[in-house]
Amino acid sequence: MKILVCITHVPDTTSKIQFTDNNTKFDKTGVQFIIGPYDDYALARAVELRDQTGGELTVLNVGEAETEPTLRKALAIGADKAIRVNAFPKDAYFVALQIAHYAKEGAYDLILMGRESIDFNGGMVHGMVGELLGMPSISPVMKLDIEGQSAKMAREIEGGKEYIEVDLPFIAGCQEPIAEWKIPNMRGIMSARTKPLDVVETISDETFSQVNAFQLPPAKGAVQLIDKDNVEELVRLLKNEAKIL
Amino acid sequence: MSILVYLEHTEGAVKKSSLEAVSYAHALSSKVGGEVVAVALGNISFEELVKAGSAGAAKVYHVADEKLSVGIIQAHANAVGQVFQKVGANTLVLAKSSLGDAVAARLAVQLKAGLVSNVVELPETEGGYTVKRSIYTGKAFAETSITSDNKILAVKKNAINLKTDGGEATVEKFEANLEDKDFAAKITSTDQATGEVLLPEADIVVSGGRGMKGPENWDMIEDLAKELGAATGCSKPVSDIGWRPHHEHVGQTGVKVAPSLYVAVGISGAIQHLAGVNGSKYIVVINKDPEAPFFKAADYGIVGDAFEVVPKLTEAIKANK
Lengths: 245, 321
Ligand SMILES: Cc1cc2nc3c(=O)[nH]c(=O)nc-3n(C[C@H](O)[C@H](O)[C@H](O)COP(=O)(O)OP(=O)(O)OC[C@H]3O[C@@H](n4cnc5c(N)ncnc54)[C@H](O)[C@@H]3O)c2cc1C
Ligand SMILES: Nc1ncnc2c1ncn2[C@@H]1O[C@H](COP(=O)(O)O)[C@@H](O)[C@H]1O
Fold this sequence. Notes:
The structure holds two protein chains of two kinds.
Chain A: E1 2-6, E2 9-11, E3 19-20, E4 25-26, E5 33-35, H1 37-53, E6 56-63, H2 68-77, E7 81-86, H3 92-106, E8 110-114, H4 125-133, E9 137-147, E10 150-157, E11 160-167, E12 170-174, H5 186-192, E13 197-200, E14 209-215, E15 224-225, H6 231-240
Parallel strand pairs in A: 1-6, 1-8, 6-7, 7-13, 8-12, 9-12
Antiparallel strand pairs in A: 2-5, 3-4, 9-10, 10-11
Helix pairs in contact in A: 2-5, 3-4
Chain B: E1 2-7, E2 9-10, E3 13-14, H1 16-32, E4 36-41, H2 46-49, H3 51-54, E5 59-63, H4 73-87, E6 89-95, H5 98-110, E7 113-119, E8 130-135, E9 140-146, E10 150-155, E11 170-173, E12 186-192, E13 204-208, H6 218-228, E14 231-234, H7 236-240, E15 261-265, H8 271-274, E16 282-287, H9 294-297, E17 300-303, H10 306-319
Parallel strand pairs in B: 1-4, 1-6, 4-5, 5-11, 6-10, 7-10, 13-14, 13-15, 15-16, 16-17
Antiparallel strand pairs in B: 2-3, 8-9
Helix pairs in contact in B: 4-5, 6-10
The complex binds flavin-adenine dinucleotide and adenosine monophosphate.
Adenosine monophosphate binds at residues 6-8, 36, 38-39, 60-63, 89, 92, 95, 113-114, 116-117, 120-126 of chain A.
């Protein structure tokens, strides 16, 4: 089976978010970048499926040269080869166009992504690629098994899950507990150095949106502490001050 | 040019977040003109559909195809796309949700529409079309302009007040032209809690963390939630260990909630948990450790043992009714 996993290169979940250049650029000072946590779940499941059924696992990122260590990490975790589409990811549609093009060229049986990126949280790229390729797109998928040419999966819905069957090829946006995150071992890290990482150019520059500026939320005021033996005071505040009860 | 709103429904009722999306579309139409039209798919009663009228829709198209009662993404996207063309809309508004996002993404390609998700305000329409959206899991905002003629806005919960004083909506049937391949993904069964307040929709949420010590102590959380008419949530370790189901896990890698009130009991307030709750209007924290980071994000806090404080609080709320 040929599997494609699309990964993002995003600030670590504990990062303090700040901007520079008059609030037009993300401030990378002191920020550590990681594989998007949802993409990491997709990758972990893809490695398991590849090991189970054989075939080839490719990871792809649309990003500038700085994302290569993140792609190398995915190779260390178990991907066989990597593709970097050399461009700043301008908007979701732009990214989807690139992915759809290379996905079509590679004729993948299965395309896995994260349910959403943790920078812009759109949850959109998988659906866009699905529409561009005329394939089903399913998200968020929390369980995925492949039997021959068809897949069984569980998709999380509000308050529960639904079980879905679909034939390959298709696209899934993944989340936990689809698989456990995999940590690269020494052998993986060594072999990642020699695995192919191809840099390819964009096939279109089309976008439908652009970010003009960023903003930080206003600072939160100090907490009002209430004595544990006076919970009635909390009820009063919720009623009269917050006007919730 | 009309504004179309995609309505989601669950357990026979139109979702509150979808009615908020109608309210948003109504406010948008007051700004840019055009009629607000809604579309609902699958089995849903007439009484429910007219609620879109109270929220500001002039008309509701109902695609009554039974097969659309479940959320098959491709089929939903195509049906909504056909209504969009029929009414000659240029804007689609919907509530941010896992189904809404998936449908919106496919439609963005079909309609060549700029899609902005997590929208928190009405757009700025002078000299362009700029929308404010929440990014970095609520840690920041981005002013994003849409450059295409067609536009899709996925609205975050609580971005706008629910309108309830609108007029009567006319309801009209619409036959969507769907093919077998739109139903290629088959939903074989569903496993969903019924009669509960849905976490992403809830106006009040009570969550428990590892400080609750074990699943047997969740009665306390549930009693408080019941008294408040709230949904229950939990931290990630709690669902990882299996004390609570996965769909209750709140945070960066779980459900993002934006209720009026979030009550956190025995949760330390790790940055990844806070990322899922920073859209809440008010936060109450109950934790025995005065140094717990959650207090920094809270409006009201009680330093104390949850096993003592929570039952007392439940009683006090009951007494206040
Ligand atoms: C990539 C990544 C993603 C993550 N995503 C999420 C996410 O989406 N959501 C999430 O929640 N976490 C997430 N985490 C985990 C997160 O970092 C924390 O580990 C987790 O939130 C801690 O859960 P907790 O507060 O329940 O437990 P703990 O940190 O163990 O805190 C328990 C708290 O309970 C208090 N307590 C104990 N006993 C009592 C008592 N009797 N009465 C009152 N208080 C008491 C303690 O003082 C303590 O503050 C993520 C981590 C990573 C690395
Ligand atoms: N620049 C990118 N390169 C590769 N994959 C991406 C990129 N952006 C998003 N994706 C994939 O699409 C998923 C959803 O992203 P988003 O729509 O931005 O929330 C992510 O989890 C990734 O799997």
